[in-house]
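--- STAGE predict ---
source: upstream dedup step, 1 unique chain passed
mode: sequence only
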Amino acid sequence: MRPISQQQYEEKRDHIRIPMDCPVVVQGEDGLKEMGTCINLSAGGILFQAEHEYPVGTRLWVHMEPKLKLSPGLTARVEVVRREYLPQARSYHMGARITEIKH
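--- STAGE serialize ---
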């Protein structure tokens, strides 16, 4: 049996990931905000980089404005589903599932 390559794994995702590289405002339930960077976005989730560590299960609001104004900004309620510490950047990659989009 052959191991699954990264490309084969990513093709199994439910939604296509779109690279973003744009600022994102992350707000916790306590109202505190921090700036981060949106790494990628899909119809079902977001990957962002932030200095603060949010535990899996944490619910947050995120707001981002794309660099190119070809599409409107996004404000969404998300739930953290994974995190990865980036020691060289002293920050975290946070994977979150979108649970609500604010209109």
